[in-house]
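Appendix C reproduces, verbatim, an entry submitted by the partner laboratory led by Prof. M.T., so that reviewers can inspect both the input and the predicted structure.
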Amino acid sequence: MPVAIANTSQSEQFHQVDRHFTSEAKLWTELYQRDDLYALGFQIRLRQALTFIRNLKLPPGTPALDVGCGGGWAAIELARTGLQVTGLDISGPMIATARRNAEQADLPRSPADGNRPNPSFEVGNLVNMGYSPQTFGLIVGLGVFEYFPDRLAAAREISRLLSSGGTLVVTIPNPDRVTHRVTRWRAGALNRFWRIQRLCQALSTTGRGKQKGIAAQKQQDETPAVQRHNMSPEAFDALWAEHGLQRIGYAANGLGCGAETLANAPLLGRSLAGVLARGLEAWSTNGDRRLVNACSGYLGVYRKV
């Protein structure tokens, strides 16, 4: 049975994550269908994960868990391969979106499991779900691990849920990326610029619209930012090794704001920047660790030993 989170700061972090992704549910549905550089990075990450998983050649019906499933795109593709997939997300609107996307995909139900939908989706927090030990032969976590306030607790729970010989495919932002310093400067400078710009827009209106604009800006400025916990590829590998998972593959994607984009505007031109992003996808997959260490996102594939 699920239990309450005792740590207040952790509870607040989960609340902020829920609120953040609930407000962006529509965006996360569109990202995997859009044709722009920002969306391309997420599409590459999903493609990398699915390639690793397909190469595992898991038996049909293998139970799989997609943690932080968002709009359900990974869960849907895993179900197409014959796996029995559960998608889990802390955001109710995200899960509603995932269910709609799965219905539109028109996937067959699972006769071996009470004719339930495949994938199925649940709202909840991984560390509180109370799944039985060694339930899943595959666990996927794309763009979610960085939001757990207690990474050790999340890693322990994932290790507990993964069956012996099971596989984990998980990502983490890389703080050691080559553009880290530029990214930090850009984030600070542009955030200040955007805040001033929004405030000027609010002040340029009149009457009730002006009051609403100023109030909305004040609320946005006072809203706590969602914390993300980055880890270097080496530290990430070491974390999973401590929990009995051995790395069997890896990949990376994105150079942050450097050669690809600045404030989401392509510096090299959209076409050339896209070629660079796809080149990184190929070169970083089980490739040169120096390249992996320079990229903004790290994808690790681990097997429970």
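The radius of gyration is 20 Å. Additional entries are available on request from the coordinating office.
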